[in-house]
Amino acid sequence: MKICVIGAGPSGLTATKHLLDAGFLDVTVYDRGSEVGGNWVFDAESGHSSVFETTHIISSKTYSQYEDFPMPAWYPDYPGHEHLAQYFQAYARHFDLYTHIRFGTLVTRCERDQKGRWRVTVRPTRGASGTSGPSLGPEEDEETHTFDQLVVCNGHHWKPRWPHYPGTFTGEYLHSHAFKRAEPFRDRRVLVIGGGNSACDCAVETARVSARTDLSWRRGYWIVPKFIFGIPGDVLHNRIAQQLGFVPWRIRRPFLQLLLRLYNGPSRAYGLPEPDHPFGATHPTINSELLYFLRHGEIHPKPDVIRFEGREVHFSDGTRAEYDAVIACTGFVISHPFFPDDLVDYSEGPVPLYLKMVHPRFENLHFIGLVQPLGCIWPLAELQSRILARRLQGAWAPPADLDQAIRKELANPDLPQLATPRHTITVDYPAFRKRLLRELAS
After folding, report:
1. Range 160-198 burial, b when 16+ CB lie within 10 A, else e
2. CB atoms near residue 148 (< 10 Å)
3. What is the pLDDT of residues 25-80, one digit of tens each?
4. Which of 47, 227, 385, 436 has its CA 20 to 30 A from that of 182?
């Protein structure tokens, strides 16, 4: 069986490792970069990675490591991108994955042949070319190879989703994907748009050097500190879930809301709008510095943007201000550009995959890591990879009525969330992990 894996990031690595463990040795991994780790290989020039110079993960190392390859004990509770790149490289060396990876190779097309196999067309990349990423080699260097199985692990934090406002901003306008260092914003007036993790991180980092940093929110968000009572937030959350026998979310949520209100105080104390939705209806923002910077006057809250006018930005409360740079931290589009749109297009949702991985029509197409947990992706991708390997061995099968199972899964999400494209793949880490383990035990 010839197997193609797209991407040598955290999900692609664990998928490859478990396929090899299961005895499938003809595995080829294509990756556009020059090293394993995907998004966690910091490169200020390539334009592929979304991490910036000071990025640390927002899930603790306890819940951000592979089960069969723990992080070193000396790693901090929240490792930075340098630690993570070293960790993934060590994983690839330990399990001898490098021999299966073709770096500097971009997958451009995936099509099915008459026998249902996958014709995968690839093209070499040639180093970095600014923010657009590595340049493609000539078209005549394209190659097409046929595979029995296709495993997609290309990630979902690489294609920017831009906001749309009337007018034009004539200063520097960039997406958080292109934000790499705070230094270029020294002594400049900066507006950061968004209330998610990238937005709050960008606001904190620019505030260290800027003349002024404003932060625009269109709604209130739940801010979760990285440590609660001296314990990493996800450790505390999962400890509560486990000790209470995986108590249902509808019972857990009010307790978590109360805990955050007691710990942070009301949002209005920081000049921010109160959340207009229950905890979990949007992806929570994990940040221990934002509220501190707000109360110290280093970051200034602003309401929603309504239009641009040259270097002026007009806000929903009737105020306006002039800026040198605007950073749009407005999320990413789920994108699989190598598939025809009529075959796979999850850019706006829903994502009709069983266990967020099994395609209803093609038995030889799987997605690994296409989830956005309230926690870390990689341990869940590891469990998905074990299920994939068992399926190819004939030791596991999805439900006979796969379409019905997918409809049921979509109709009963772990967390009832706002109906936006960003929230089409959200799962509750403890609940989803429990479901995956139950499948492996069946």
Report:
1. bbeeebeeebebbbbbbbbbbebeebeebbbbbbbbbbb
2. 16
3. 999 999 999 999 999 998 766 567 888 999 999 999 999 999 999 999 999 999 99
4. 227
